[in-house]
Each structure stands twice: as structure tokens, then as C-alpha cells.
């Protein structure tokens, strides 16, 4: 009976996850379409709200479909209380659930991730701080960009 459930549930879960991923890509594409100052200015208004609500909800839905239910105890620090949010060791696909639970903050990511099909568009909508492994000044530039965003007094989202 368990094998039969797995044979039925696995394709259904895969189809649901693909559908959720395509919806996330579509919403990220709409929110960043014709964006002025792409990557250099923070998303504002409906664009930012769309990313926060839609991507956060879709990410939670994807994890639910995969069988994960996350409950938050306590209160997430606001942007003004903590402009930089640290999550460690940030080395697995569970990092996305932290992003969803904290309102889809900006993240620090490898520059190569931005060119990945579908995921790159979703990642770009979070306005990440891109780190280039080929650039010798990348570490210094990354620290400067994180500092600039943290000192922006709420114009940029939290950086994780």
C-alpha cells in the first residue's frame, strides 16, 4: 500500500511543484518587467509587495507540497530593527523557507546563479547582492553593497 501511495503521490507532487515554480517565475517576471534602475534601485510599491506576498506564499506552498510544515515561534525582526539577517550555514535548499518566512529579503548569492533558467529570474526579483568568484575585488564590493543597503534606512529590504 505504501508503494502504491508513493507511485501516485510522487508524480502529483512533482506536477504541483513544477506548477508552483512556473507561477513564481511568472510573478517574478511581472514584478521586474520594465523595472527602472534594474538592480541598482530597490523595488518599490506594487512590485515589492508582489514579490513579498506572491513568492513567499508560493514558496510556502512548494514546501507544503514536499511535505514540510514550518511553524514560526516568536516574532521576525523588522527591517528597521535588523537590516541584516544572518542565516547559517546557508548550504541547502531549506534556505528558501527562511526567505519565505522573513518576507523575501535580498540575499547574497553567486553571480552565476542569476543566469540559471527560471530560478535566475526568481532570484533576480529578490534583488540579490551578487558575488563574483572571478573578480578579486568581489569580497570588498559585496561588503560595501551590504553596508550601503543596511544603512539605507528601510529603502532596501533586509539582506540575508
TrEMBL record:
Domain Phospholipid/glycerol acyltransferase: 70-156
Single GO molecular function: lysophosphatidic acid acyltransferase activity
Presence of the UniProt keyword Cell wall biogenesis/degradation in the record: no
Keyword Lipid metabolism: yes
Main location: membrane
Any one Gene Ontology BP term: lipid metabolic process
Localisation: Membrane
Matching InterPro entries: Plipid/glycerol_acylTrfase (IPR002123)
GO CC annotation, single: membrane
UniProt keyword annotations, A-Z: Acyltransferase, Lipid metabolism, Membrane, Transferase, Transmembrane, Transmembrane helix
Transmembrane segments: 7-28
Similarity comment: family membership: Belongs to the 1-acyl-sn-glycerol-3-phosphate acyltransferase family.
Listed name of the protein: PCAT2 acyltransferase
Annotated organism of origin: Helopsaltes ochotensis (Middendorff's grasshopper-warbler)
Phylogenetic lineage: Eukaryota, Metazoa, Chordata, Craniata, Vertebrata
Name of the gene this protein is made from: Lpcat2
